[in-house]
Amino acid sequence: MKDTPISRSLIDGAIEKYGIQDFAKATIREVKAIAEYAEKESGVEFIKMEMGIPGLPAAQVGVDAQIKALNDGIAHSYPDIQGNPVLKQQASRFVKAFIGIDINPEGCIPVCGSMQGTFASFLTCSQAQKGKDTVLFIDPGFPVQKMQLQVQGVPFVTFDVYDYRGDKLRPKLESYLSQGNICAIVYSNPNNPAWICLTEEELSDIGALATQYDVVVMEDLAYFAMDFRQDLGTPFQPPYQPTVARYTDNYMLLISGSKAFSYAGERIGVTCISDALFHRHFDALSARYEGLPFGMVFSTRMLYALSSGTSHSAQMAMAAMMQAACDGEYDFRSEVHVYGERARRLKEIFLRHGFYVVYDTDLDRPIADGFYFTIGYPGMTSGQLAHELMYYGVSAICLITTGSHQEGLRVCTSFIEDHQYQPLDERMAVFAENNPR
Asked: pTM of the full predicted structure?
């Protein structure tokens, strides 16, 4: 056995110090804390792949607009709970430009990041219809969304889509929907953590079933238009961001400023509710909220109770970024394309040293290179692999924490720097020698 870059005793001691019994279930924050501790104690730079935080500067057009709004004195008053009309109009236009669908500005409601958007959406959907109180996740997915439901006391069920792509997806979904208790279906597209992208046929099946069984689809577009296999960045021209919105009226689109615009710190996003769903009256909501339709319950009850609105200046930043993108003055896709290049280079290193990509295809197409990808190593469980890689100064989270049933890790490309490819290559060469397949 060759020596590892970081001593095994240092890593094992840190894991024990944090009280982690099963490293496969270690949270993102716990993995991050151990990596930072080991880096400080050893003096060896960690190659950190556990945190899904943007690794690029915030879009300048947004920063400038936010500063101007603050200088103009906007901070002195409460924001409108429905959102600033400028942002609502630009969000509607953005959806038309890059998704190719029509949503009235009325249904485009700013939120304090998509996290708040999902929290309020879960509240609204789970209360809308008597007997339909359970959320269905097409996993793997973002773990904190399940924590939100745990906080709310709302039940949820999940399945790993790994074995249910293509024509297998519809019967799998129907096996849950036919029970009659599902209020909403949730997935991200592109997917966190697998970076798979649902096909038009799969989205069509989801939409048809959502209509048939009268459930709401919550489409998480946190990584908007970041399938770099096709040009999704030309406003008002196809191809457009794929969406279930072409196949049902029962949808909510969660559009975040965090990744596409690298604007994570100001907590700004837009929840876009279809015109039909926004104005629909549900008996349970009407009885509980003075006859209000779905969209007004979402904004004037759920969001109002949570935060009394979304920051004025952040709304102006989001509006400016969306407007510039629609006008062709800001190519946000070219800004974030670096994530795809990082993924390509990282995959090449891991594959050359005996690793494999866990979620490797969208049916017959290799997955895109982007913000995330997944890796496994022959003969190792998720927990064993994550633990072992810490000795080599590489940190990542286990897929089990995302609802996946596969053995492997999620790799995030956001913090990778050019000087780290060579040491990663060298460390993985030692890893492969110490762990023969």
From this structure: 0.95
